[in-house]
Amino acid sequence: DVLGVDGSKSGTIYFGDKPTMNSWLQKIATKIQSLLAQMIQMTNKLMTKDDHIQLMCWVYERISTDENNPVWKEKFLALKAADVYLFDVPPMR
């Protein structure tokens, strides 16, 4: 699935072969990591050193159900100083 900034999903992407898929996904992952690093750097310029963000990334939260079938939900994680923040969508401000 492809996730938008607001957490929306745009659909499933299919590839003709595995090497094409791996190349495409690697390029997207590299771009996302670069943009997140840039966002961290820009945000940290506005904060004191003690409040600097250390990491921002997408993770999955395991939600237990009554049937013992775990459900996984996408979350946006931010580590700041000694705090851990989980968001349904990335904070935009």
UniProtKB/TrEMBL annotation:
Superkingdom in the source lineage: Eukaryota
InterPro entries documented for this protein: Syntrophin
GO cellular component, one term: dystrophin-associated glycoprotein complex
GO molecular function, one term: structural molecule activity
Protein name from the UniProt record: Uncharacterized protein
Organism: Arion vulgaris
Upper lineage: Eukaryota, Metazoa, Spiralia, Lophotrochozoa, Mollusca
Record gene name: ORF29457
